[in-house]
Amino acid sequence: MKFPQPLIEGRLRKRYKRFLADVELKNGEVITAHTANTGAMTGCSEPGSRVWLSVSDNPKRKYPHSWEIVEVAPGVLCGINTLLGNHLVSEAVSAGQIPELKGYAHIRHEVPYGEERSRIDLLLESVGSTSPCYVEVKNVTLANKGVALFPDAVTVRGTKHLRELIRVVEQGARAVIFYCVQRNDCHEFQPADAIDAVYAETLREAMKKGVEAVAYQADVNVHGICLTNTMPVCA
């Protein structure tokens, strides 16, 4: 995925009200940017961090700037826009870059399903009689000593999605929980037990019952973001 326009660099002043961030641009101007991330953003929202913003040409937007990338360590960029996760995975699946998800002819997005009134991020379907594949995408920004971790805050919604995926498998279809790690300094994925033990235990239960857990690392730069390589899921 390439950014349609060059990103604007600045320094983070503060993140607040979950969806807002004040950023000082290189010319000294301070602007407020939309932050498309509902998590705690631990390690990704330190004041003074270098950040990059996109700009929308939609005149109806109150905040035309969107926070896309933060430098979490010297030379290590992290994509914090959780809305891009689904797009990155869908793009990679369509290009045949995800071996675990090859062989499907169609991709549908945000399809209603399940007993708890959920929407699946990606529904992969074949022309023949092969069962569909339900793919739930989670964007990962938290890391510790090279280990990517999810979630970065307690997620009741995320646990609900795992329960839904378990029922998909029990009904005879295929279900995948896909962790999109938007940083390139990790070598494996683990559930964040210390942050949400219920989610972590539900993930382990889901994997035992046949839900497939897949994690891919992304190459993040100011020109674009793309998935590059798989990493082991150590649950």
Describe this structure in words.
This protein is an alpha+beta fold and 235 residues long. The chain folds into two domains: 8-79, Beta Barrel (OB fold (Dihydrolipoamide Acetyltransferase, E2P)); 83-231, Trna Endonuclease, Chain: A, domain 1. The protein has three helices and 15 strands. The chain has helices spanning 83-94, 156-170, 197-208, and strands at residues 8-16, 20-25, 30-34, 50-55, 65-73, 76-79, 106-113, 118-125, 133-140, 142-144, 147-150, 174-181, 188-191, 212-221, 224-231. The strands form three sheets. Strands 3-2-1-4-5-6 form a six-stranded antiparallel sheet, with no helix packed on it. Strands 7-8-9-12-14-15 form a six-stranded mixed sheet. A three-stranded mixed sheet has the order 10-11-13. Helix 2 packs parallel to helix 3.
